[in-house]
Design brief:
The longest helix has 29 residues. Helix 3 runs parallel beside helix 4 and helix 4 runs parallel beside helix 6. This protein has 8 helices and 7 strands; from the N terminus they run E-H-E-H-E-H-E-H-E-H-H-E-H-H-E. A 7-stranded parallel β-sheet has the order 3-2-1-4-5-6-7, sandwiched between helices. With about 250 residues, it is of the alpha/beta class. About 45% of the residues lie in helices and about 15% in strands.
């Protein structure tokens, strides 16, 4: 088990990639701390993991609320004494063309996708520095590498996550902490369910494997980066898109 005895905090863990990541980390021996705004979903997922013999604990959390984040981290530290891994997975979309995008749409996405990553990371970093070890993983996107029509706010947030990742890798690498980002392509999650079938077919055609990715395929990359197998990987943004950018 690659993550045995590690304490892993995962935001947006109630569904999709976050849920798959929690399941993968648990299967690799980690104690998983599942955080999500949806209390019912995150509680159900933790219960399911515990029923399968894993160690899982649920917290209802909005990553835009710093006080709540700090309270959660303090509670985790009091119970387990450490935080080994943080996966900044929580994210939202509020799509519109530039001319039609509202201030509210822009601000909501930046608050969750960018400021939420900053706040969660800042909340755990002192603990990791004290431990002289830790792994911080954040969700960027292929949109954060190449941009995308109608996603000014989302692209800005995901570009910025990569910038923060590289900055933190420089600051924290000497302290024993690795920081990396993952850039998924188009993954079969609830976010895509609202898209018309023709749009989804076009997305599949953009990928050389001619299919969308699965949440488990992203979770596998997170698990690798969180493990000692990736001990010399720091400050990178790994594209996981089936080759769509080729």
């Amino acid at each position: 088990m690659k993550l045995k005895e590690r304490v892993a905090l995962i935001t947006g863990a109630g569904a999709g990639i976050g849920q798959a990541t929690a399941r993968k980390f648990a299967s690799e021996g980690a104690t998983v701390i599942l955080c999500d705004r949806n209390s019912q979903m995150v509680q159900q997922e933790a219960q399911a993991l515990n029923a399968d013999g894993h160690s899982a604990h649920a917290y209802t959390l909005d990553v835009t609320q710093r006080e709540a984040i700090d309270e959660m981290v303090d509670d985790v530290k009091s119970k387990f004494g450490r935080v080994d891994i943080l996966v900044n997975n929580a994210g939202i979309t509020q799509d519109a063309r530039l001319a039609q995008m509202t201030q509210e749409q822009f601000d909501k996405v930046i608050d969750v996708n960018l400021k939420g990553v900053f706040q969660c990371t800042q909340s755990v970093v002192d603990t990791m520095i004290e431990q002289k070890s830790g792994v911080i993983l954040s969700a960027s996107s292929v949109v954060g590498l190449y941009g995308n029509f109608g996603q000014t706010n989302y692209a800005a947030s995901k570009f910025a996550v990569i910038g923060m990742t590289k900055t933190w890798a420089r600051e924290l690498g000497p302290k024993g902490i690795r920081v990396n980002a993952v850039c998924p392509g188009f993954i079969e999650t609830d976010i895509l369910k609202s898209m018309p079938g023709k749009v989804l077919d076009r997305l599949r055609d953009q990928c050389w494997q001619r299919r969308l990715g699965s949440p488990a395929e992203i979770a596998n990359v997170y698990a690798f980066l969180a493990s000692d197998d990736a001990s010399y990987i720091n400050g990178v943004a790994i594209e996981v898109s089936g080759g769509m950018s080729l």
